[in-house]
């Protein structure tokens, strides 16, 4: 426990109790002589622990806290909130922010009655009791020895009296309490006057207290880099690693989760291993460790005497959790999702929804998970900091029962996601045969769900285990339409490459054919197109062997696209014609239209623009009134072919109709593509104003799609 107030320091009287345990000071501190005449009133000046060295970031939080500490103005206002709480995960920088604000307030002269700092040691084995805290504060206020009442109730009354006297004299006092754990530690220490201010730090939220809470999260990447850079410059002003290894430094801050304590440990390791040179070496060491929280530790202590180690900090927080909460945290940490909605968290923990929400609330109050409330239309989500996840996984690794429970939890979550994806995949927009408002709402809701769970759904297929091959393959197939629609080709390829051997080991040739078809389609669009030919050829073979002519035709259609993108234009044309004949024989007008459209693409790629326009026109006829999305696609291709053939006015009409259709659907890539093509065509026609409008529309759509209009040619 560390208590500070102001004025010259005298040694405590020989009769005063001094408690030294493990090299830490737990006794009261009097930073002025014991008051011989209590009636004369306290004399308190300001003294704080040293200001945090290398403090970076937190501008918004610091401004908010200083605004709360600032004296009231001359308008008669009574001032702001008496009690301020700075909360957050252990090691997130709470004490540093509170001390930075206290030093700034002292510099401004806002607390003429003094600043008292007390470490309540809430997360140590022996937290400071309110009675001990009051006694220490009285010493700081100049009351000691024979003048200290023997009864706790009298000490508390005298403490409040001293603060009241200072308030009556117009002397404001700032009380700064560090490491509050139990709500009951604080109320006996609060002043009876609203002239004073109280700031406390805690790893937990305390909603029962009437406090304004500042909840701290990780630093932003630039502030994280600045923190390490400043620490290195303190050791050696011209440390060349800051510029020479800027990329490794950014990677290091990411591994530290932008958490101040972890960043300080990393800086200490870099200083300690100065002779080893490279920041990249530390990055490699951290990546190769089993658990980051075990690797991120350094010898020595920080400027406040605290060990440079993460695990003890997290251990103290987890130890205080109510029963069952640490188990839930370990299970959630071992299900490698980016984040969780409440339903998914309930599936992981195996608890009913209401109980799961209670557990999540407790974990959020302990700042071991973070609640994200994005808005009224989106459900709350829950995040685990990467370093907390690492620590919880290390805990689980030492407990075979938790490891087995986590494996079961992963299986439950995968099946949960599979059910959800299968239900929503039915409502995605390709093909769209039902343009009714109700169908559009279902499609929009399905897309929104896939958008929110995108990373988790892909991860559920990729988790490196051999469990649930049927579910993983089926989930990969239900993801394909969404990943294609949003053009997440890298994820589509990764999912396909993972699912293919699973389907083969299952011996399910129909599933293997579908997976190979999707994998080849993804590779032809977002990977090396020549790598798509083998899986698509294999898919066509499997579809033929299992008696699925429609599937075989779809594989041929996709194979033709891969052949065209690989430069085999003549071969692609032959393959698409073959697919068209197969669909025509089946009476499948929709797929015939797709094959017809692809024939046009092959003709256009071969420079046969007039023939391509005819082919696209036929595709428009097949899709008109049957599938509005593919009708828009064919109109876009028709417009470009007409433009290339010099039939500019016809091209403009086709592209304008395509743009109207594409704007109806949540496909920004397609809207940007058609807008870009229309802008070029209008420019060629000398219609500059309309071309500029089309270009602006294309730029906006491209920005939303995450690309640029200048790279949009015709189907590249």
TrEMBL record:
InterPro entries reported in the protein's UniProt record: P-loop_NTPase, TPR-like_helical_dom_sf, TPR_rpt
PANTHER family tied to this protein: HTH-TYPE TRANSCRIPTIONAL REGULATOR RV0890C-RELATED, REGULATOR-RELATED
Descriptive protein name: Uncharacterized protein
Organism this protein belongs to: Streptomyces cellostaticus
């Amino acid at each position: 426990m560390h208590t500070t107030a102001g004025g010259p320091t005298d040694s405590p009287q020989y009769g005063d109790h001094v408690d030294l345990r493990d090299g830490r000071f737990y006794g009261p501190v009097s930073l002025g002589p014991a008051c011989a005449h209590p009636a004369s009133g306290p004399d308190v000046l300001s003294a704080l622990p040293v200001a945090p060295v290398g403090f970076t970031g937190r501008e918004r939080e610091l401004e908010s806290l200083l605004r709360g500490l600032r004296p009231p103005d001359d308008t008669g206002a009574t001032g702001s909130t008496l009690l301020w709480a700075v909360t957050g995960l252990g090691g997130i920088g709470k004490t540093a922010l509170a001390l930075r604000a206290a030093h700034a307030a002292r510099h401004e002269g806002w607390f003429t009655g003094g600043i008292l700092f007390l470490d309540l040691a809430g997360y140590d084995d022996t937290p400071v009791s309110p009675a001990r805290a009051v006694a220490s504060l009285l010493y700081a206020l100049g009351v000691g020895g024979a003048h200290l009442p023997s009864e706790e109730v009298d000490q508390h009354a005298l403490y409040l009296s001293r603060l009241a006297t200072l308030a009556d004299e117009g002397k404001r006092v700032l009380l700064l309490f560090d490491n509050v754990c139990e709500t009951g530690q604080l109320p006996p220490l609060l002043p009876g006057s609203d002239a004073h201010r109280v700031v406390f730090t805690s790893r937990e939220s305390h909603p029962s207290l009437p406090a304004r809470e500042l909840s701290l999260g990780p630093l932003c990447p630039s502030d994280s880099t600045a923190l390490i850079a400043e620490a290195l410059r303190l050791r050696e002003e011209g440390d060349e690693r800051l510029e020479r290894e800027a990329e490794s430094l950014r990677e290091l801050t990411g591994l530290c989760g932008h958490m101040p304590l972890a960043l300080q440990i990393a800086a200490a390791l870099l200083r300690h291993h100065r002779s080893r040179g490279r920041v990249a070496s530390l990055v490699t060491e951290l990546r190769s460790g089993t658990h980051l929280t075990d690797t991120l530790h350094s010898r020595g202590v920080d400027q406040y005497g605290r060990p440079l180690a993460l695990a003890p900090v997290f251990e103290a927080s987890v130890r205080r959790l109510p029963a069952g909460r640490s188990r839930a945290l370990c299970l959630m940490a071992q299900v490698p999702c980016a984040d969780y909605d409440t339903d998914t968290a309930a599936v992981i923990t195996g608890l009913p929804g209401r109980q799961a929400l209670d557990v999540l609330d407790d974990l959020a109050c302990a700042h071991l998970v973070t609640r994200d409330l994005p808005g009224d239309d989106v459900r709350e989500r829950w995040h685990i900091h990467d370093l907390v996840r690492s620590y919880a996984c290390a805990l689980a690794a030492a407990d075979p029962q938790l490891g087995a429970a986590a494996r079961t939890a992963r299986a439950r979550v995968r099946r949960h996601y599979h059910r959800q994806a299968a239900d929503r995949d039915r409502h995605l927009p390709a093909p769209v045969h039902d343009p009714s408002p109700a169908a559009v709402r279902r499609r929009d809701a399905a897309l929104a769900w896939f958008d929110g769970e995108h990373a988790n759904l892909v991860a559920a297929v990729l988790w490196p285990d051999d469990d649930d091959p049927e579910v993983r393959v089926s989930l990969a197939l239900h993801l394909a339409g969404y990943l294609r629609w949003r053009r997440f080709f890298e994820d589509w390829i990764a999912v396909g490459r993972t699912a293919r051997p699973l389907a083969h080991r299952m011996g399910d040739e129909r599933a293997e054919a579908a997976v190979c078809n999707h994998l080849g389609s993804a590779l032809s669009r977002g990977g090396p197109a020549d790598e798509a030919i083998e899986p698509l050829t294999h898919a066509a073979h499997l579809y033929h062997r299992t008696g699925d002519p429609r599937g075989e035709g779809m594989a041929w259609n996709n194979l033709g696209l891969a052949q065209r993108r690989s430069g085999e234009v003549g071969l692609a044309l032959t393959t698409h014609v073959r697919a068209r004949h197969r669909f025509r024989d089946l009476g499948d007008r929709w797929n015939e239209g797709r094959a017809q459209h692809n024939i046009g693409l092959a003709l256009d790629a071969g420079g046969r623009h007039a023939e391509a326009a005819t082919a696209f026109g036929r595709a428009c006829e097949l899709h008109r009134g049957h599938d509005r999305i593919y009708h828009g696609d064919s109109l876009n291709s028709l417009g470009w072919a007409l433009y290339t053939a010099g039939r500019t006015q016809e091209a403009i009409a086709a592209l304008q109709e395509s743009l109207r259709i594409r704007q109806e659907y949540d496909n920004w890539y397609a809207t940007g593509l058609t807008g870009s093509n229309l802008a070029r065509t209008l420019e060629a026609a000398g219609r500059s104003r309309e071309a500029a409008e089309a270009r602006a529309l294309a730029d906006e759509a491209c920005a939303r799609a995450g690309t640029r209009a200048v790279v949009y040619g015709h189907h590249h």
